[in-house]
Write a structure and sequence with these properties.
Elements: E1 4-6, E2 28-29, E3 32-33, H1 39-56, H2 59-71, E4 79-81, H3 83-89, E5 94-99, H4 109-122, E6 127-132, H5 136-148, E7 151-157, H6 158-163, H7 165-173, E8 177-181, H8 188-201, E9 206-208, H9 219-227, H10 229-242, E10 248-252, H11 257-263, E11 273-279, H12 292-295, E12 297-301, E13 304-308, H13 333-340, E14 344-349, H14 351-365, H15 371-385, E15 394-399, H16 407-413
Parallel strand pairs: 5-15, 6-7, 6-9, 7-8, 10-11, 10-15, 11-14
Antiparallel strand pairs: 1-12, 2-3, 4-5, 12-13
The structure holds pyridoxal-5'-phosphate (PLP).
Length: 418
């Protein structure tokens, strides 16, 4: 199976951002995206695309999705003004948080997991497989499978099962089977390879519930659409609460699903600045971070053409971050497109900046954010210090998840003995 290959960088100046037409029928966002998969997967992806398109026009499907998002997930999540944190950023600015931490299971991942699980059921597939890194997507998938009575198998790198034993237990409690992957670096990218292998073998019965806005077409599109509920709600809420659009929106970027979920519904409003914050790890040297768009180059990984962390031979580099959920060497192709067209910009925040963001929000507002989301919070604090936040700025940060899962990591990083 072709997993990756090197390509030359697309010509940035040839692309300009277009909102409504992406992805095109080949699954391309500008020159990014597509389906770089073996022949055996092409028909499976075509079947998925057809079923997804049909579900979009199916009123019964859309109604059930809406109702479950409301009564099970707890949507709409609030758009919450944080005055004391705003003060820390810069006097005179106004920061709002989109509270995905309040969604059932404590993060945005459930939005996508629920949508895809309903799609699987509509397609008559009763066996769900998924990959997971830190375990968050595995838990979200196991959760919706329990809700809908679907069989659930989660592929997880052996190293990750050891690092995230609590999430392994959660998934089992929810009725899922967790398969430990011992190939390669025994982490997320190996779990994805193993899940793809299972899918090809069991395609008649099986639906691959992919966790982020990456992978081959139509996944980046499907995940974006299911996560766009975040930005669609936020757009209505900010107009209602402030009577105008925000000047700046920030979100952390791992594979890019929470960020595209809030960016996309605002991207056609020209003057809103969109900033994606990647994990800077300990430092921006190979193997010590996960800042794919900041420090990577285009290439193919897991079926899509996008920015990648790779060495000169095209080998995928190891990643490093205090937040396990941002630890992916690729990124969704729509973000590569937003970067190349200049519609969004991407920056890097290191572990220390994230820790600072987490502590600042906890103390100023009584909200303990996930370490992932804390990258965006910490970066915003730095922008304030550098005088980059004009008076009167209206800002939204996507608070992708709550921090309970990170407490042991944070205590260790702060040298606190529990
Ligand atoms: C998984 C996760 C992320 C990163 O994934 P994206 O697909 O980039 O959103 C961010 N925040 C939280 C809380 C997560 O669990």
């Amino acid at each position: 199976m072709q997993i990756q290959k090197q390509v030359t960088s697309p010509n940035a100046s040839s692309q300009s951002y277009q909102h409504d037409f992406y992805p095109d029928e080949r699954g391309r966002f500008g020159s990014f995206g597509g389906k770089f998969v073996p022949e055996s997967l092409m028909t499976i992806l075509a079947e998925l695309e057809e079923a997804y398109e049909a579900s979009r026009k199916d009123e019964a499907f859309q109604t059930e999705l809406r109702e479950q998002l409301h009564s099970y997930v707890g949507r709409p999540t609030t758009l919450h003004y944080v005055p004391r944190f705003s003060e820390l950023v810069s006097p005179g600015c106004k920061v709002y948080l989109k509270r995905e931490d309040l969604a059932h299971t404590g993060a945005h991942k459930i939005n996508n997991a629920l949508g895809q699980a309903l799609l699987a059921r509509r397609m008559g597939k009763k066996r769900i497989i998924a990959e997971t890194g830190a375990g968050q997507h595995g838990v979200a998938t196991a959760t919706v499978c329990a809700l809908l009575g679907l069989e659930c198998i989660i592929y997880m790198g052996e190293l990750d099962t050891q690092r995230q034993s609590l999430n392994v237990f959660r998934m089992k409690l929810l009725g899922a089977e967790v398969r430990s992957v011992t190939s390669g670096s025994r982490t997320l990218k190996d779990a994805i390879n193993e899940a793809i292998r299972d899918w090809v073998t069991n395609v008649e019965t099986t639906f691959y519930l992919f966790g982020t806005a990456a992978g081959p077409h139509p996944y980046p599109r499907i995940v974006r659409d299911f996560q766009s509920v975040i930005g669609t709600e936020a757009r209505e809420q900010i107009l209602q609460q402030e009577g105008r659009y925000p000047d700046l929106i920030l979100a952390c970027v791992g594979g890019g699903s929470n960020a595209i979920g809030i960016f996309y519904p605002f991207a056609d409003v020209p003057d809103i600045q969109l900033i994606g914050v990647e994990a800077g790890g300990t430092e921006l040297t190979p193997g010590n971070h996960a800042s794919t768009l900041v420090a990577g180059r285009p290439g193919v990984l897991h079926g899509t053409l996008s920015y990648l962390l790779q060495n000169d031979d095209g080998q995928i580099l190891e990643t490093q971050s205090i937040s396990a959920g941002l630890d992916y060497p690729g990124v969704g192709p729509e973000h590569s497109y937003l970067k190349e067209t200049g519609r969004a910009s991407y920056v890097s925040a290191n572990d220390a900046t994230a820790l600072r963001g987490l502590q600042a929000l906890s103390r100023s507002e009584g909200i303990i954010p996930a370490l992932e989301s804390s990258h965006a919070l910490g970066y915003l604090l730095e922008m304030g210090e550098q005088g980059k936040i004009p008076d009167g700025s209206l800002i939204i940060v996507n608070l992708s998840g709550r921090g309970d899962k990170d407490m042991l990591t944070v205590a260790k990083a702060l040298n606190v003995q529990l």
